[in-house]
Structure formats: structure tokens, C-alpha cells
Sequence to fold (327 residues):
Amino acid sequence: MDSFNSALGKNITFVRPANFIIQGFIGIPNIKYYYVFLCFVYIVSVLGNTVVMAVIYLDHNLRTPKYIAVFNLAFVDLLGSSALMPKLLDIFLFNHPYISYNDCFAFFFFSYICLTMQVFNLVALSYDRLIAIMDPLHYHVKVTHRFMLSLIASFWVLVITVDLVAVGLLTRLSICRSVVINSYFCDHGQIYRLACNDYTPSYVYGVFLVALILWFPLIFIVLSYVCIGYALSKVATAQERYKAFRTCTAHLSLVAIYFIPLVITFTAGSAIHPNARILNLSLASVFPPMLNPIIYVLQTQEIKASVKKLLKVRKETKMKVKKVIIK
Fold:
């Protein structure tokens, strides 16, 4: 800490390499097939999230507070996939492992913003379900368009601020132990461990980031569903309980898909093999953006009805155009 504090007050030159090397998986033959698979996942993710955003935008019935959060989730998934996947494929599929110092921090910044916003979107949707089931009579008073927009905007400000601080701390490090990053992207923990000066501030901040991105949101979501379960236990009939709980299945599916790999990885810590860590984190980064739109289309009645309605309108429009042409 002393070297860090003195660096803040003095004009000290930090060692900054021209390039980093993203190492990725170690000793796995034919690993390029995995990246081809990720390429397919990315294409499906882009198409799926674009469809969800278009459906919500075109159908005025879906412009509710809940679907403001769903739209933002689709937008973040699209942005996050586009920030991560093209560069990841360029590095590993086309064998360009070198990335410049500034590009590496930009890669880290945008990737972490989107990963963190995915979590906070799940928190927003969890709060929406909590109020909808716990206090349905006052739902439209408590969860308004203004409230949801303010909540999501505050999450964006928080995430951008937190990640800017993380990047700022990393730039105060002298990277001279190595330039090889043992991850699939410019990962925070892997970067600060390359420093040869004191990286305690980045280490402490990394612990804070894990708590902010993983544990605090997960605890809030779990407590929300404990309250939802308690409220549903007081509902008169099993059919009514099932009907109410069914509105939460899409959200619960997203929570499981996102958090299970992360909990396994961060609970195991250094005991987990580097390849297993990369596999878990890469799947947690690319699978939720692909599955989110599929889950919402298949499990959410409103979106299914909206898609059918839009397809029906398009079909009727084509038929009218054909009739006009024939005449």
C-alpha cells in the first residue's frame, strides 16, 4: 500500500508493456472446435436478442415496466456478446493472441460492464416479480415506468463508475512479471497478478467486485424468492399457486443459467484447474445471452402471443400486397 500511496503523490513511471498475450486453454487438442461452437452461439444470440428487442418495440402492449427490464437485458446481452465474442474469435480461432495495452483495458472495461449489467437486470426482474406476487394490488403504483427506468439508469451509472475505478487501479501497476494472461479475455484478476509492484488495492477491489457482481445480487434474488414462496404458501388453491409461480419460471431459469457456473468457479477459487475456470467463465459469458431470448419466447405468454400477432399481421400484409398486384 505504501508504494501505491507514494505513486499517487509522485511522478512515477509505471512499466506498461506494448502488448499482452491472451493464452486461453492450455494443452487441449482440437480446441478450435470449441471456438467454432462459440461462434454459432454468438450468431444465435445476436439474432435472438434482436428479435426480442424488435418484438417489445413493435408491440405497444409490451411497453410495461417489466418489459423495460427485459428490453434492457436483451440490449446488454447483444452489446456484451458483440464486445466479447468477435475479439475472442479473432484471438483464438484466427490465432492473433497479442492485444495492445490500451485495447486490453478497453476489452476488460466493456466486457465487465455488460457482465455486471446482466446481473443487475436479473435483480430488477426479481424485484418486479417480488412486488407482483407479494403486493399485486399496489404493483402498478410501486413499479411504474419511471421507477423502472430510474432503477436501470442507476444501475448503468453504478456499473460504469465501478469499472472505471477498476481500470484506474490497474493503470497504477507496473506489469513486469509477465505479459501472458491466463484467461480467455483481459480478466481483472489475471492482469493485476502480473504486476511487480504492490497490487493490494486491485486485489481488495477485486474482492469487492466479486461481492458486487455475484454475492449481493444472488442473496437479494434468493431472499426475494423466499418471500415469494412464503406469499404463495398462503394462496388458497394449488392451481392459483402454480399460476402465480409460473410467471417466475423464465426469470428463475435465467438466474440458474447465469449464477451456477459463477458460484462453482468462485467458490472453488484457486483449487479449480485453469482450463475448468476458463470453460466455466466463458460459458457463463456466452450462454445466457443466447438462452435468454429463447427462454423468454418459450416461457413468457405475452411475448409468445406478441410474436404470433406480429407474424399474423405480416402474413396478412403480404396477402393484401399480392391481391393488389393481381388486380
Q: What stands out?
A: The CA atoms of residues 316 and 322 lie 10 Å apart.
